Amino acid sequence: MKIFSGIRPTGDIHIGNYLGAIKQWVELQKSNNCVFCIVDWHAIVTPYEPSKIMEHIYDLAIAYITAGIDYKKNVFFVQSQVKEHVELAWLLGSITPTGELFRMTQYKEKSKDLKANVAAGLLNYPILMAADILLYQTDVVPVGHDQIQHVEFARELARKFNKKFGKVFTMPKPYISKSGARIKSLQDPRKKMSKSGNPKGCIGLFDSPQTIKARVMAAVTDTGKEIKYSPVKKPGISNLLTIYALFSNQSIKEIEKQFQEKGYAEFKKSLAYLLIESLKPFRKAKKELSEEQLQKILDNGAKRARKIAQETIVRARKNMGLS
Predict the structure, then answer these.
(1) Does 32 map to a domain?
(2) Which of 184, 192, 213, 234 is the catalytic position?
(3) Which residue in 23, 110, 213, 268 is the catalytic one?
(4) How many CB atoms lie within 10 A of CB 72?
(5) Model's pTM, two decimal places?
(6) How far apart are CA 97 and CA 135, in angstroms?
(7) Domain coverage including residue 267
(8) Known catalytic residue: 192?
């Protein structure tokens, strides 16, 4: 199968991104043809620091590579290096009713936060995301629950285009991992771990051991002392158990048994140590991989991506009577 997925370079990448996305991609790449993209054009539709975006792009590249993404086997690149993404977004925009864009959940939520500073790019975000997916004749898109609507939107545009102009695009399907798709904030386990939320609720892949330990020890837990998985009654400890299980490759039942007679403090110390050791390769790679090395990898990936994207654009233009 052909798989496409990407992450916005909007800040320090955290363990929620890793567990919910990158870690599952490492498994998916073993038996699929994968296209992994750093979607920087999506990052500029909301307020950002121009001086920081390249740093965020390189950090994401380090995270992908260190996690085990094979950039030689897969197509791995930065979105803005392949202009066909924007061209296809414009073509798809010609058949997209504006009413559908205003109904998108992400637009409604983010426009409330931004108020008077809502950019047209935020409204058109789903069209560009559809172009990202459809350019590569994608079969499956690994996403979190909050992105399923966007994949369904891409499916609808593919269906509409194919019906109106003749078949060009594959109909993509969303893929949700069974665990780890929604790691919660350490400070508010009712909310998804987010770079834009409380900084103390996140653990970054490149955080120092001191920061990791401090944030784990300060993580919100629940009444009582029992280390028991119960997302409704004990959301705090359940979130920590999920993180522990995914990093240790143990089942939650095994971890519960291991800490059966122990309290939250001892459990948190063990989790902090586990995370410090597990994230050591990321801290090391950030020091050792140069920007020149990363840019060379991304440039090579962009060349491969352009070849695939151009084939799709030629077909789309021809079917629309534009070539």
Answers:
(1) yes
(2) 192
(3) 110
(4) 8
(5) 0.89
(6) 20
(7) 199-283
(8) yes
